[in-house]
Amino acid sequence: MTRQHGQIGQPVAVAEGLSKTFGTVTAVDSVSFEVRPGRIVGLLGRNGAGKTTTLRMLLGLTAPSAGRATVFGHPYDELPHAAHRVGVSMDGIGALPGVSGRRDLTIWAKTLGLSSRRVDEVLERVGLGDRADRKIKGYSTGMRQRHALASALLADPELLVLDEPATGLDPDGIRWLRTFLRSLADEGRTVLISSHLLAEVEQTVDDVLIIQRSLRYSGTLAELTDNGAVRLEDRFFSLVGNGNESGVGAHA
Amino acid sequence: MWTGRAWWSMALIGVLMGALAGSGYVTEADKDIAKGATTIEGVTDQVVRSWFMMLLFSALLGAIFVSREYQSGAIGRSVLLSGGRGRLLTAKLLVGLAMGVVFGALTVALAAASPSVFLPQAQLEPAWTHETTLTLIGVFVVTTLGAPWGVLLGWIIRNQAATVATLLGLTLFVDEALLRLAPAVGKFTLTIAMSSVYRDGKPELLSVPAASLTIAAWLVAAGIAARALFHKRDVL
Questions:
Q1: Helix H or strand E segment including B67
Q2: Alpha-carbon torsion B220, B80, A142, A164, what sign?
Q3: Which of B8, B69, B70, B77 to mutate: most A Cβ within 10 Å?
Q4: 3-state class of A204 per DSSP?
Q5: Mean pLDDT of B144-161
Q6: Which residues contact A54 (CB under 8 A, 6 or more apart)?
Q7: Phi, psi values for residue A148, rounded to 5°
Q8: Do residues B157 and B69 lie in contact, with contact meaning Cβ atoms separated by under 8 Å?
Q9: Is the ipTM above a cut-off of 0.90?
Q10: A13-240: CATH number
């Protein structure tokens, strides 16, 4: 399947001055970026850099202290058919307790008005077709990641927001994920993926957002790495430093 | 509707408690009748009334229905897929009400049958009166409303253990203690107002219309609080 976007060039997701404070702690500080259609975009940062909080604000799960986030031109809460246009796999969003993988997806599919055949399709696609009748609590970390990806794909969305999908995957799983993400982009989908696994991301993404509470870089991977002349890891640490934010500016 | 094992385990515990209370009351009934402390009609009413405790398990089921989604993180997906928080809250409340109706129907069936089951064990014949019917209706109403009450508390507290502890504490200790220590205040608590509806008969209780208004006020207040907090707080 190759998608035709009605608004070629229009950003799929936009963050404008997003900030989030928890008490006296600033988790995200005035982050602005755009996600272009049909791209795999890596949201990179250390643990605790604000990646997940930024994604949650984008999806309306967390209210920003300041700023605004839109998906397909609307705040997620106001986006028509949001659940069919945006697929989400996110840290903190669990499966229904005590059910099998197939049962969990079937319940969500019914919520979305989808057939059980679609459940079988996504299970096959993520490689869980033969293990879907096991209870999720017995799944390995890698299987949970695949199950979460299956959940995100259920409604055949245009945009996938994936929070640390490579975490817990073994080398085979990581290689599978890389191919999987590229196949999603080849179908015309946009993928926004957060990660702290720089070497892995370097082989997967088209565009890069680097945050360490504030935005440190937004642009193409090729531009950041001088078309591969410089390693992403080196550029990353030159941008985020040792965690001290002073003196490090954001690229437009 | 997905409630896992919570549905049948709550129902089972409630049924066991109701049966124990009903049969226990009948054990002493013949002596009380002989002393003139009650009548066969009163015993019949009391056996039916003893099923009021199903309201606690109905409330617990409602609370678990919501709070376990917070515990598992499934609430995040519910919010993302529901098309808005207000819509999700309404849907959960309606499901909670439906759960309450199912629990209430089960309770009514058992409560209606229990005089015929328990009284003959004490060589007594049940005497069903208009008062018994009103008591049965009251038991149904409070059991039905228990589930949405639990749902709303679950939304407000969002933690399964804390919600269950709050429900148990309010129902078993706080409301009852308030009634004893300060009856003028205690009669306006939710579970004590509910005891007016299932015709507990204590003289300090509210009338049924006043109790009904009090129950409605509690549910509306909890609904407003749940809605405001759900819209204001971060989901994850």
A1: helix B54-72
A2: negative
A3: B77
A4: coil
A5: 96
A6: A15, A18, A20, A28, A31, A43, A194, A211
A7: -65, -40
A8: no
A9: no
A10: 3.40.50.300
Question: Rounded to whole angstroms, what are the CA distances from B17 to A137, B28, B103, B124, B132?
Answer: 32, 17, 14, 22, 20
In angstroms, the CA B60 to CA B74 distance is: 19
Say whether residue A192 is in contact with chain B using an 8 A CB cutoff.
no
Task: Examine the pLDDT at B105 and tell me if it is beyond 70.
Answer: yes
Would you call B73 and A111 a contact, using CB atoms and an 8 Å cutoff? no
Domain range list for chain A = 13-240
The pLDDT score that the predictor gives to residue B3 is 54
HEC string of B104-138? Answer: HHHHHHHHHHHHHHHHHHHCCCCCCCHHHHHHHHH
| Mean pLDDT of the region B41-66 | 94
- The span from the CA of A101 to the CA of A214, in Å, is 37
Beta strand segments in chain A, E = 13-22, 25-35, 40-44, 66-71, 86-89, 159-163, 190-195, 207-212, 214-220
Closest approach of A7 to chain B, Cα-based (Å): 23
pLDDT of residue B4: 60
Edge-first strand order for the sheet with A13-22 is: A25-35, A13-22, A66-71
pLDDT higher than 90, residue B235? no
Q: How would residue A171 be classed by pLDDT, with cut points 50, 70 and 90?
A: confident
How far is the C-alpha of B177 from the C-alpha of B190, rounded, in Å? 13
Q: How many CB atoms lie within 10 A of CB A138?
A: 10
pLDDT, tens digit, 9 for 90 and up, residues A97-148: 788 999 999 999 998 999 999 999 999 999 999 999 999 989 998 899 999 9
Place of tokens 């890891």: A233
B1 touches chain A (CB under 8 A): no
Please check the confidence at residue B128 and state whether its pLDDT lies above 80.
yes
Check if B24 contacts A (Cβ < 8 Å).
no
